[in-house]
From TrEMBL:
The entry's keywords: Glycosyltransferase, Signal-anchor, Transferase, Transmembrane
Protein name: Hexosyltransferase
Pathway: Glycan metabolism; pectin biosynthesis
Keyword Glycosyltransferase attributed: yes
Family from the record: Belongs to the glycosyltransferase 8 family.
Membrane topology: Single-pass type II membrane protein
InterPro entries from the UniProt entry: Glyco_trans_8, Glycosyltrans_8_dom-fam, Nucleotide-diphossugar_trans
Organism this protein belongs to: Salix suchowensis
Principal cellular location given in the protein's record: membrane
Domain of life: Eukaryota
Length: 116
């Protein structure tokens, strides 16, 4: 996510997002993590970021738990968005191939977790 901080402050977006989060705390209105408050506040007034800047979706398919591959070409940021987190899959000895990219940064790693 790339934000124009001047527009952010002028628009009072922090307050608007916090209001949706407080509503969510009182009565569950969405299920998809931290993204919905932003979607509700910006209501489609967004621009896509090219996948070379954000390789999202490495958390796999939220419905079937399938592993995903990298987009073709260069990538600047690896983003394990979705339910499948590499630390969980590695600990369960059920990693996706790309989880090996994350394994060296696991501070709680066990030797067997990265030998796959």
């Amino acid at each position: 996510m790339v934000i124009d901080l001047e527009r952010w402050r002028e628009g009072g977006y922090t307050t608007k997002i916090v209001e949706w989060m407080e509503l969510q705390k009182r009565m569950r209105i969405y299920e998809l993590g931290s993204l919905p408050p932003f979607l509700l506040v910006f209501a489609g007034n967004i621009a896509a970021v090219d996948h070379k800047w954000n390789q999202h979706g490495l958390g796999g398919d939220n419905f079937r738990g399938l592993c995903r591959d990298l987009h073709p070409g260069p990538v600047s940021l690896l983003h394990w968005s979705g339910k499948g987190k590499p630390w969980v899959r590695l600990d369960a000895s059920r990693p996706c191939p790309l989880d090996a990219l994350w394994a060296p940064y696991d501070l709680l790693q066990t030797p067997s977790a990265i030998d796959f």
